[in-house]
Specification:
Number of helices: 3
Structural class: alpha+beta
Order of helices and strands: EEEEEEHHEEEEEHEEEEEEEEEEEE
Strand order of the largest sheet: 2-11-14-13-12-15
Number of strands: 23
Length: about 375
C-alpha cells in the first residue's frame, strides 16, 4: 500500500529522436585560382576553430592588381598636386592683371581730362584705351584658365575616388584568397586540396557549428494539442536528452527552441527542435546521434500518482480505513510513465491498496504480514 498526497504534477513524455546541426554552412571559394595551402584539419571529421584559415588561393594576381591600382592612385595624386599648383599660379596672375587693368583705366580717365583741355592729342587717348583692352584680355584669359583648372581638378578627384574604390575592391579580393572559419566547427564534405584549381563559388567544405546542436523529435497531435491548449506554447520548455554510448548513458540539458512550420504527413505529428545547452559536455555530441528525450508535459493540480495496479474498473481505488478496504471513485486525468494520475476524495496521508487483489470489495480486511510483505485480503468483510 501507499500513502496518498495531493500535489501539482507534471507528466513526463519519453520520446526518441536524433541530433541535427542547428547551424551549418557550405564554405565556397570567393575568388578563382590555384589552392596553395589548406588547414591540417580540413578533412572529414576535422575540427576548426573560429578565425582559423581553412584554405589559401594563390594571391599573386590579386596582389599585382592591388599594387597596380595603388600606383595609378599615386599618379592621380601627383597630377592633382600639379593642377592645384597651376591653379594657384593663375589666381595670382589674375590678381596682378586686374590691378594693372585698374591702373590702365585710371590712366584713360586722366587722359580724357587732358584732351578736353587741349593738353593731350586725341591719338594718345586712343593708345591708352588700347592698353586697357589688352589688360582686360589678359585678365579674362587668366579667369578662363582658372575655370579650366577647376574642371580638371574635379575630374582628377573623381578619377582618384574611382581608383580608391578599385583599391578597396582589390584589397578585398586579396583578403578573400584566404577563407577563414566563421565559428568553431566540425568539418565535412571536403572538396578542395592543395594544387587544385577552383572557381568562384566552388564548394570547399561544409562546416557544422559545434556549439549549436539540436535534438529533433516529434510530438503526436494529442501531445502537441494538450500542451498548447494548457500552456499556449512549446518554446522555452526544458528537455533532457539522453545519449547511450558504449553502454553508458550521457544526459544533456536542452530547451525547445522552435517548432516545425508543417505537420509531418507520415506520422501526423509535428517536429520539434530543442537546442542542447552544452553539446561538448559530458562528451562532445555531434549530429546524427539517436537519442532519447524526456519532455515535461502539462501540469496537473491536485492529483495523486498511483501504480496502475491500484485502479479497478477504470474508476475505483480502494483506500484502507481501520485495516479494511474502502472504495473511492476517482477520475483518471493522465499518465506518467506506467503510473496513473488520478483525482478523487482522498485525505493527505491516507493509505491505498496498490497490490492487485482478486476479490476486492468494501470492508475486506487487509493485513500486513511484514513491512516488506504484500498486503493480503483475509476474506472477511463488514456487514453492509
Amino acid at each position: 500500500h501507499n500513502r496518498t498526497h495531493s500535489f501539482p504534477t507534471r507528466r513526463s513524455s519519453d520520446l526518441y529522436g536524433n541530433t541535427v546541426a542547428g547551424r551549418q554552412v557550405d564554405i565556397r571559394a570567393l575568388v578563382a585560382g590555384r589552392v596553395v595551402k589548406t588547414h591540417d584539419e580540413l578533412r572529414e571529421g576535422g575540427h576548426i576553430k573560429a578565425g582559423e584559415t581553412l584554405l589559401v588561393v594563390d594571391p599573386f594576381d590579386y596582389k599585382a592588381a592591388l599594387d597596380e591600382a595603388k600606383a595609378q592612385r599615386a599618379e592621380s595624386a601627383a597630377r592633382l598636386a600639379e593642377q592645384q599648383a597651376s591653379l594657384a599660379s593663375d589666381r595670382t596672375s589674375l590678381e596682378h592683371a586686374r590691378a594693372q587693368l585698374e591702373l590702365a583705366r585710371s590712366d584713360v580717365a586722366r587722359a580724357k581730362q587732358l584732351v578736353t583741355r587741349g593738353n593731350l592729342p586725341e591719338r594718345a587717348l586712343d593708345d591708352r584705351r588700347q592698353i586697357v583692352l589688352q589688360r582686360q584680355q589678359a585678365a579674362d584669359q587668366f579667369a578662363n584658365s582658372i575655370s579650366i583648372w577647376n574642371a580638371r581638378i574635379a575630374q582628377t578627384r573623381t578619377t582618384a575616388q574611382r581608383l580608391d574604390v578599385i583599391i578597396a575592391r582589390a584589397e578585398r579580393r586579396l583578403s578573400e584568397t584566404e577563407l577563414k572559419a566563421p565559428f568553431d566547427a566540425y568539418v565535412t564534405e571536403v572538396s578542395a586540396q592543395v594544387g587544385r584549381m577552383i572557381s568562384v563559388n566552388d564548394k570547399v567544405a561544409t562546416l557544422i557549428d559545434q556549439d549549436w546542436i539540436e535534438a529533433k523529435f516529434s510530438l503526436t497531435d494529442s501531445q502537441f494539442g494538450r500542451i498548447m491548449a494548457r500552456e499556449g506554447k512549446l518554446e522555452g520548455r526544458k528537455v533532457e536528452v539522453h545519449w547511450t554510448l558504449g553502454g553508458k548513458t550521457f544526459t544533456y540539458a536542452a530547451t525547445i527552441a522552435r517548432v516545425a512550420a508543417r505537420i509531418t504527413s507520415a506520422s501526423g505529428g509535428i517536429d520539434v527542435f530543442a537546442r542542447i545547452l552544452d553539446p561538448s559536455a559530458p562528451v562532445p555530441l555531434r549530429p546524427g546521434a539517436f537519442v532519447a528525450l524526456s519532455v515535461e508535459d502539462v501540469k496537473f493540480n491536485d492529483v495523486i500518482r498511483i501504480p496502475s495496479t491500484a485502479l479497478y474498473d477504470g474508476d475505483t481505488v480502494y483506500a484502507i480505513v481501520d485495516g479494511r478496504l474502502d472504495p473511492r471513485k476517482v477520475e483518471v486525468v493522465g499518465t506518467s510513465g506506467s503510473d496513473l494520475l488520478v483525482r478523487g476524495p482522498f485525505k493527505d496521508g491516507e493509505e491505498i491498496a496498490t497490490t492487485r487483489i482478486s476479490t476486492p470489495g468494501k470492508g475486506v480486511l487487509i493485513k500486513k504480514l511484514t513491512p516488506s510483505a504484500k498486503p493480503v485480503a483475509t476474506g472477511e468483510s463488514k456487514a453492509p
